Amino acid sequence: MRFEIQKTDLAARIGRMQTGHGTVETPAYVPVIHPAKQTIPASRIKEMGFDIVITNAYITRNTYGHDEAVRRGIHDIIKYDGAIMTDSGGYQVLEYGKVGVTPPEMAEFERGIRTDFAIPLDKPTGFGMGRDAAESYVRDTLRVSREALRAAEGAGGGDSGQTWIGPIQGGEHRDLVARSTKSLVRMGFEMLALGSPVEFMESYEYRLLAEMIATAKSNMPHGIPLHLFGAGHPLTIPLAVALGCDTFDSASYILYAKHGRYMTEDGTRTLDEIEYFPCCCAVCSRYEPDELRLMPQEQRVNNIAVHNLYAIKLEVDRTKQAITEGRLWEYVMKKSRAHPRLYEAVTHLMAPSSSSLSSASAPSSATSAPPPDIIGMFRAGTPQYKQKAAFLYGAEDQHRPEVAAYHDIVRKFRTRKSIVAITPESHTKPGYMSREYRELYKRSRESDDVQFCQYSPILGIIPIEISDVYPAAHHEQARVRVDPAACTEFAKTWDAFFGNNGFAEVWYDKGDAFLGHFAKRLKDVKKRSLKRTVAAAARRTGAAPQYNRPSKIKKKEKERL
Amino acid sequence: MRFEIQKTDLAARIGRMQTGHGTVETPAYVPVIHPAKQTIPASRIKEMGFDIVITNAYITRNTYGHDEAVRRGIHDIIKYDGAIMTDSGGYQVLEYGKVGVTPPEMAEFERGIRTDFAIPLDKPTGFGMGRDAAESYVRDTLRVSREALRAAEGAGGGDSGQTWIGPIQGGEHRDLVARSTKSLVRMGFEMLALGSPVEFMESYEYRLLAEMIATAKSNMPHGIPLHLFGAGHPLTIPLAVALGCDTFDSASYILYAKHGRYMTEDGTRTLDEIEYFPCCCAVCSRYEPDELRLMPQEQRVNNIAVHNLYAIKLEVDRTKQAITEGRLWEYVMKKSRAHPRLYEAVTHLMAPSSSSLSSASAPSSATSAPPPDIIGMFRAGTPQYKQKAAFLYGAEDQHRPEVAAYHDIVRKFRTRKSIVAITPESHTKPGYMSREYRELYKRSRESDDVQFCQYSPILGIIPIEISDVYPAAHHEQARVRVDPAACTEFAKTWDAFFGNNGFAEVWYDKGDAFLGHFAKRLKDVKKRSLKRTVAAAARRTGAAPQYNRPSKIKKKEKERL
Q1: Strand partners, B5
Q2: Which of A258, A404, B196, B333 is 20 to 30 A from A61 via CA?
Q3: Contact call for B317 and A483, based on CB within 8 A
């Protein structure tokens, strides 16, 4: 199977999988199709824009029998001409304990029905399983996976156009997830799937879910796609995609519908709670909520299910559009406001130092394996330069990749000047084009020895010479009070900037409480009021600089980035 | 015209206006229909669910002539059988300076064409007009409005089923807006309209726009509906509705479409920027972005315009659903993350003390009139009890009405107990049902003299006896670090709680940095480690309390709320 990555943002990517039944663009939602009791025809689902579906090989075998199923093939059975993934019944193991078919038999059957993506008969660990049991489930799953892959290779393997997907298990035991992932990669799987997020989501354990995804991702090569089992809710799709999931299946669109549960971008509502459809899909534009409530059961369920499919597709498309615009960070942050537990997960993952979970009630992971470096993953996938301005709101944005990259540049900035003048950033960007800077430059006659800087609480110190580097040149910062104590990246850059350069004086507005907070950290630097100093300089028109240059000024090599 | 208010949240309301052409549910978007060059038939717009439109009486008169227009009536001219509002050409004054028709002539014409809602020929002040000019425009508008209303009353008035709308002008000059509003109410207008937000929005001056709306609202009776001229973008609709706007018109759906501008919930994009439609409306489900780009000009413009109408309607419906759920605060806060300038406006308006605008670059209003009490307006409109849990994220939520109401209760709470024990709030709510509380109660043998409290950084101190009052009993708080310095409401409640009660001791976890920040404010209260104190008490099983009760304990009347 060929998988090409076309665009990236954070750890998300837009890619294309070439299959025996067409190209599938990722990230893609993979609707679950029931091989016998499907009420929304798979062909209708294809028309809605879903180019890949998943169905259950175990139920197919039980319903049609081995021979008929193999004779017809899965595409004929579910009447769908796009790409098909088959689950082998692992979830049935989780639900009912045993399935009455051996792993090699299932593998042979999945080959026989000519599915595009086959999954070995895994044993899902779910959430909340003890470590010993989980470890034995992982071991069994790995063994079965190896056998399935060997058998497939013996039977023609890659040539048949069929892709085997390696199932990662381990649940909240991060070390097991890591081991699982590495083993499957070594075995040669071209695609992996991460098991059992459903229980995490039902317990609102979004943070553990995210750490599980990140653990798997950080142990597999970039070029291999990752499927996420059973995670198709609009609420969590942007985060899962941001963490690098390429496909994700779920039957929730129809299961929810059966209980009158209507998906919205911010969570699920019962149909009874809906006065106004917060949606403009074909169903919601055609009917009023009351009309839907009064429909016969089957018609109502199908209509809600179709709406749910639209809601999921919309979320995937919005997320893809955000990747294209380079605004996935903004989108995930905004989305996190849909539920406090999601907000707390996103805050912890995307802004670890500034707003970590309150100690009182933070859930802890079940293993002592170190948490995955999510910020590092995000930096690796984010372009250095973007077309659109970065939107900055508060301290939670200091770790976003473009901002972190700019901090790194400034932390290596060197100048031989002995005075630094720091002013709030100008609305005009880059700062050196601004009226504020030009006037300040003109009025401060000793400008030869003054390093001019602007600052943003989030982006940090912006030396005027590099105010044209992205995102310094191209961002929009909300003008709200930011807690200086939360600006840990600003503090690090401040210390590096003053540590690397031998400034004898710093000029700034003494009424600026934010800068005042950091100026306290400076011991050997004279703090002067920018306004008074510049006014005095302006009065001495043409006079030579009259500053005492303390001998302790270190004369470093001028090294400008 | 009858206007009935059915549900409220913040200053928003869901209402019904009875007109001569059907019932209009508010908040309602009022699409602008061109009386001669409309490319999307008004009947199609009605089918989409818009029960009221606005058209221009001035252009109608110029196009069809007075006599033909009066003979046919406006409903026949634009082929629309719902409620029609007619603008009189005031915007043309703003754009072109003069219109060649006198105000009484226009008033007579608007009556003649039998519009449902008529607007006198006002002089819009727009944004950025000097005070003197604005004042004279306001004066002229008031005079014309008085004449129009008198003439209407002379001609049959209320009996004709026609409603005259009083146009409020004044722009960013808040005192003029206030004066304008009061005068129109005194004249007897049953509905008011607030002028010229377009220029505010084009300058991203969302904060001044919001203050202008709030100024008008705080000077008019609750029962009169308010129309907002020219403000129909999904980005600002939730905020405008939250501030109490009932209807709002705009032609942007078609004007934007002519320039290939596609509306999204987060702002406008050019069609060229769209790779994936972030929408599932009839247009966006039917075509791919490339298909739309390749269409002939007229067809493309109409399709984008229809999409834009869907996008606006969706935003209105989402906002109405949020009102129904009692989650409008959450929705406006989330929405504000769509653009830093919107965020900054919402932060300033809805959380004034904790995160006010940074002083460096805050825009200031043009007048010294005091800013309207928006928080007070929100409190007046918000139900005391809600079905759904309040979602709390951070310090920005401390001013939301339900939270502020709880702070008020606790600030009046009295107890005669001399010890207060404060613990973080339990997940189980109300707190007195929690395992944490029951264990603490059991272990601390001197419980007769201990006032047990839980706390949330946002909701404040929660005395266990009133932990079942909404929203203490029914909220979901994100477990993230909250800056204690930003929790100004917590500080006020803390001071009142300790000031009103004569506690000699406070027991809390000494490792709790949040409580530690506030414990520093206590001078005459002994601070003890909750854990050690309770452990010691537990060891003295059955022993009588052994605390020294300082004589300074004030014995107040037990007054529990």
Answers
A1: B15
A2: A258
A3: no
Of B281, B393, B481, the CB nearest to A356: B481
Contact A117, A158 (CB under 8 A): no
pLDDT of amino acid B95: 59
CA angle (A155, A158, A163) in 5-degree steps: 100
Out of B339, B344, B483, the one facing A486 most closely (by C-beta) is B483
Lookup result for tokens 């026609």:
B162
Q: Does A480 touch chain B (CB under 8 A)?
A: yes
Residue among A496, A492, A490, A495 at smallest CA distance from A477: A490
| Residue B150 pLDDT > 60 | yes
Contact B375, A501 (CB under 8 A): no
Contact criterion met (CB < 8 Å) for B278 and A321: yes
Rounded Cα distance between B351 and B360, Å, is 19
Which 273-292 residues of chain A touch chain B by CB within 8 A? 273-282, 285
* Bridge partners, A56 (sequence order): A87
> Cα separations (Å) of B505 from A406, B421, B436?
50, 8, 21
- The beta-carbon neighbor of A280 closest among B313, B333, B477 is B313
If residue A390 lies in a helix (H) or strand (E), which one and from where to where?
strand A390-392
Return the beta strands (E) in B215-364 as ranges.
226-228, 247-250, 261-264, 267-270
- Please list every residue in chain A whose beta carbon sits closer than 8 Å to the beta carbon of residue B330: 337
What's chain B's average pLDDT? 89
DSSP string, B46-100: HHTT--EEEEEHHHHHHHH-HHHHHHH-HHHHTT--SEEEEE-SHHHHHHHS--S
What's the pLDDT score for residue A90? 64
CB contact under 8 A, B344 and A478: yes
**DSSP-assigned beta bridge partners for residue A250:** A31
Contact between A216 and A181 (Cβ < 8 Å) = yes
* pLDDT tens-place string over residues A416-438: 999 999 999 999 999 999 999 99
Interval A211-242: pLDDT, tens: 999 999 999 999 999 999 988 899 999 999 99
Using the Cα atoms of residue A229, residue A231, residue A232 and residue A236 in order, give the sign of their dihedral.
negative
For residue A183, pLDDT beyond 70: yes
Whether the predicted pLDDT of A159 surpasses 90: no
Tell me, yes or no, if A47 comes closer than 8 A to chain B by beta carbon: no
Locate the chain A residue with the closest alpha carbon to B353: A481
ipTM rounded to 2 decimals: 0.90
E strand segments, A104-233: 117-118, 163-168, 191-194, 226-228
What's the confidence (pLDDT) of residue B554?
Answer: 36
In chain A, what residues touch B47 (CB-CB under 8 Å)? none
Distance of CA A312 to the CA centre of its chain: 17
Q: What is the pLDDT of residues A439-470, one digit of tens each?
A: 999 888 767 899 999 999 999 999 999 999 99
What residues of B are annotated to the active site? 87
Contact indicator for B237, B5 with CB cutoff of 8 Å: no
Angle, nearest 10°, between helix axes A131-154 and A174-187? 10
